[in-house]
Write a structure and sequence with these properties.
- By secondary structure, the chain is mainly beta.
- It contains one helix and ten strands, in the order E-E-E-E-E-E-E-E-E-E-H.
- The chain has one helix spanning 103-107, and strands spanning 8-9, 11-15, 25-29, 43-47, 57-61, 66-68, 71-73, 75-79, 89-93, 98-99.
- A two-stranded antiparallel ribbon has the order 1-10. Strands 2-3 form a two-stranded antiparallel sheet.
- A hairpin with a 2-residue loop joins strand 6 and strand 7 (71-73).
- The chain is elongated, with a radius of gyration of 16 Å.
- The two termini are 31 Å apart.
- 21% of the residues are buried.
- The model has no long low-confidence stretch (mean pLDDT 90).
Length: 108
C-alpha cells in the first residue's frame, strides 16, 4: 500500500482552449486532502480571467496522483461554463504537493 502523505493541496495555472479568437487564464489551488502515490483526488473550482468582457466558471475533480521525482502532481481537465454563446475546454497539470498547515500548527 502507498505511503500516506499529510493533508496537502496543489496550485494550478493553465489556459483554456482558443475559442472565438480568445483564451482565458485559470489559476487557483485545489482542496486540501491526505494522500500519496495512491488513487486520491482533489476538488477545484474557480473563475477564469476576464477576456473580451466576460469570464467563465469551472469546477472539477483532478485525476489520480502522477508520480514525479520527490512527490506527485495531478491532471486537471474539463470544460468551462457556457457564456456568450461558447465554452472552453482546458487541460493542465498541478504543482507538486504543498503540505497544508492550519493556524494551530503554524503557532507551534
Amino acid at each position: 500500500m502507498a505511503e500516506m502523505e499529510p493533508a496537502h493541496f496543489h496550485d494550478y495555472d493553465t489556459r483554456t482552449s482558443l475559442e472565438l479568437a480568445h483564451t482565458h487564464c485559470m489559476r487557483g489551488a485545489t482542496s486540501a486532502d491526505p494522500g500519496g502515490l495512491d488513487q486520491h483526488v482533489h476538488y477545484y473550482t474557480g473563475t477564469t480571467s476576464q477576456d473580451l468582457g466576460h469570464v467563465h466558471n469551472f469546477v472539477g475533480i483532478t485525476g489520480p496522483a502522477i508520480a514525479i521525482a520527490g512527490g506527485h502532481i495531478h491532471e486537471l481537465m474539463g470544460y468551462t461554463t457556457f457564456v456568450k454563446a461558447h465554452i472552453h475546454c482546458y487541460r493542465g497539470l498541478s504543482s507538486p504537493a504543498i503540505v497544508y498547515k492550519n493556524r494551530n500548527e503554524e503557532k507551534e
